[in-house]
Amino acid sequence: MSRMRWDRGTCDGFAHTEQTKHTMKTHNNVLVKMCLGIFSISLLLVSLTNVVDATANSAGQKIVMACTVSPEMPVGKWLNLIYTEAFTRLGMEFECILYPSKRASMMADVGEVDGEPARASHYTTDHPNLIKLGEPVVSVNFSAFATDFTIRLDGWESLRETRHRVEYMRGIKTCEEELSDVVKPDKLSVVNEFRQGLKKLAAVRIDIFVHLEPDVMATLRTEEFKDMKIQKVGVMEQQIAYPYLHKDHQDLVPKLEAVLKEMREEGLIEQYRAIAYEE
User: Fold this and answer.
1) pTM of the shown model
2) What angle do CA 140, 145, 146 make, to 5 degrees?
3) Domain 140-239 has what CATH class?
4) Could you tell me how far CA 29 lies from the centroid of its own chain?
5) pLDDT tens sequence across 219-235
6) Distance from first CA to last CA of the chain, Å, rounded?
7) Which residues contact 123 (CB under 8 A, 6 or more apart)?
8) Is 203 helix (H, G, I), strand (E, B) or coil?
9) Residue 9 pLDDT
10) Can you say how many angstroms the Cα of residue 39 is from the centroid of all Cα atoms in its chain?
11) Which of 239, 188, 178 is nearest to 209 (CA)?
């Protein structure tokens, strides 16, 4: 019967092997921990980089809106004051580019601009790519003007079946929709620029001109128009206008809403109105 011989060399060999395995295992554990540590640091650096980039992008971002009211007119001045301050508080720049109404809608719809500063509450019905903010921005009157001071109007319905010749500025959707519903086509006309409408009114080529009240009143105080016998003869509608942003800026909606609400509570929006209207 054979016997396996265990000598000291054999035992030392086994001991050395076990020690080597233990050392390798320890080294492997250290390497794993080091790799995990490096991976964690890498993730942290990536995360911090993303935060810095996002902050930098937000801070340097410019929001461009398509405006339908000239910045030289009271309503345009009012809107410019409001949005310049609002986006400054958000660490962003603001620019408003003047377009005809239909072109402004198209530019906003396709995302060529970032939104529109003031549209009626039902605007999203025909423009689903735009998001209406919950905080209104301005309130303005659409009013009727005439040289015949015996004319008295109150609301769109007061013009139904009128014998008077009525005109409004092209691209003003509210006027287009409301007036075409109550005024006969042969009594309704459109002009490209509202000052042209006032001149036609003074020349008695039309009887009534309907437009944004603040802009007309400011124009009637100018040297060119101050001697024209034109007067407000009625308010057609007081319209509350809302900001609209393209859907690509959905994350900006609650931020801008909060800033506009804050400005309203501070009384700043009303202060800007007084400045724009030169009250």
Assistant:
1) 0.72
2) 175
3) alpha beta
4) 56
5) 999 999 999 999 999 99
6) 122
7) 116, 130, 132, 242, 244
8) coil
9) 46
10) 42
11) 188
pLDDT at 43: 44
pLDDT for the residue numbered 6: 40
Bridge pairing between strands 166-169 and 231-246: unpaired
User: Helix, strand or coil for residue 104?
Assistant: helix
User: To which residue do tokens 């609002």 refer?
Assistant: 86
Report the pLDDT value the prediction gives residue 1, as an integer from 0 to 100: 42
Q: How far is 102 from 242, CA to CA, in rounded Å?
A: 17
Token match 């339908």: residue? 68
pLDDT < 70: residue spans in the chain: 1-60
Q: For the chain, how many residues are written? A: 279
Q: Are 172 and 69 in contact (CB under 8 A)?
A: no
Tokens of 132: 């209406």
What is the separation of C-alpha 131 from the centre of its chain, rounded to a whole number of angstroms?
A: 8
**How are beta strands 188-191 and 93-98 bridged, if at all?**
unpaired
The beta strands (E) that lie in 2-155 are given as 62-67, 93-98, 115-119, 130-132, 138-146, 153-154
> What is the predicted pLDDT for the residue at 227?
93
Convert the pLDDT of each residue in 171-225 to its tens digit. Answer: 888 999 999 999 999 999 999 999 999 999 999 999 999 999 999 999 999 999 9
What does the block give as tokens for 117? Answer: 């500063």
**Residues 6 or more apart whose Cβ sits within 8 Å of residue 252:** 63, 90, 245
